[in-house]
Structures are given as C-alpha cells and as structure tokens.
Amino acid sequence: MIVSTFFFLWITVFFDVKVESILAYFLIFTFGIFHGSNDLKLIQKSTSFTKRSFFLRALGSYLAVVALTALFFSFIPSLALLFFVVASSYHFGEQHWATYRVKSALTTSFYTLYGLVIFFLLFYVNQEEVTPIIETITGVLMREEYYLYTLIVSFTGFIGIYLWWAYKKQLKINIIKELFFLIVFFIVFKSASLLWAFSIYFVIWHSIPSLRDQIQYLYGAVNKVNFLQYLKTSFLYWMISMVGLAVLYYFFQDREGLFLSIMIYFLAAITFPHVIVMTRLNRN
Prior knowledge:
Oligomer: single chain
Mean pLDDT: 82
C-alpha cells in the first residue's frame, strides 16, 4: 500500500492538474464506487434470507435512505455536510481498525476521531481548494483556524483513547507504524491536488481493503474467480450510479466547482446506506 501510494504520487510529476483530475475520477468511479455497490448482497448474506420479497424490501429501504440523504442536503446543507463528514470519518476509521475487534464504549469515538484526523489533515493542507467547495454547498466561509483546531482536537482525542486502551491492555498495535502512515498521508495530501490526494487515500487505503474484506465475507476467499463474481453481482448498481453521474456531468461540465459540490451530494447519498450496512456487518 505504501509503494502504491508513492507510485500514484510519482505519477503527478508527469501530468498537470487536469490529467490528475481525470485519473482521480477514474479511480473513484471504479474501485471507489464498486466497493459500495454490493450492499444488497451483503445484507442478504448477513441475514440468510433469499426470498424475493426480502430483496425488494431491502432495496426499498436502501433507496429510501438515498432519497432522504438527497432531501437532507437540499434543505439543511450545512448540517448534512457535517453529518456526511462525521459518518464518513467513522466509516474510514472502522475499516482501518475493525480487525482489532476492540470492545469498548469508546470504540465509536475512536473510529470517528481517526477518520476526522484523515479528513482534516486533507482539508488543512488543501484549504484553498476546500473552502470554496464548502462555501458553495453551505454558504459558510470556513476560516483557516477551524481546520487546524479540528485536526488538533481530533488527533488529541485519538491518541488519548489509544493510550487509555494501551494502559488497559485492550489494544496491541505498533503506534509508531500508525503515526508513520499519518506522515505518509500528510506528504501525499501536501504534494498532490485535493481531488488526486483524496482519490489516493480513498481507493488504496479504504476501497481496496474494503473490497478484499467483502469478497472474503461473501465467498470465503479472495481470488480472481471470486473477484469477478463480486463485480458481476454489483455491476447493475454500479451502472445505475454511473448513469446518474453522467447526467450530472452533462449539465455541469463547464462549472467544475459546482460539479464537485454536486458530486459530494451524490457520494453522500450512496455513502450513508453503505456505512449502515458495513457497520452492521462489523458488529455482527
């Protein structure tokens, strides 16, 4: 993962920001979207139901969450964006740390704080790109210190919980290695454009490990045959997502800032139900 990260970062030496954006969209719209495109199959597997009526109920519930998210962003964009960042932070932290299986009242906070460190590290070093996007979505102009203060508080909380767990001997990890990863993320976030930096983290450090875990859960082993089976069962949902994004791009292709904002709405709409599904699976 480290080698892949620096390989993608090295690519930026040869291309301008526009090419970076194209590569970033490609990674997000392939691995990124695919890792959340098999949720209905995961629900079916986790509940052991195979009846058609169950599938229709699950699909209806899933689409309802997507619709409610869209309405949330339409009427209360500031709160919706905040909720999206917090939920995504929890999801990133859960993916990174869930294998340690720590059972504690602080687990949810630990996952969320770690994810917030990732987000606000990205936001802080790319604030000139992030601030206009937030302002477009919410109408709120973020000040520089907000990013820094949130980063400091999140990191302090994350380290505090870790030290408590280490003291209680509930979590045995190499914290030096984890801090090294954060330094790698800082280098990537600082060196690449906002979109390219996010896509590197989102795909290499989140989506691909999540794909691996899902394939292992659904089919018992990670191999070429099972990977192709995963793609087959998730292709329809992925295609629907791509058609929706293609329509958005057609209408907003000349307004990149606005398109990025609307893409965030879209990603939020498909992220919330995915977070719910993966959280349920990890708890089970």
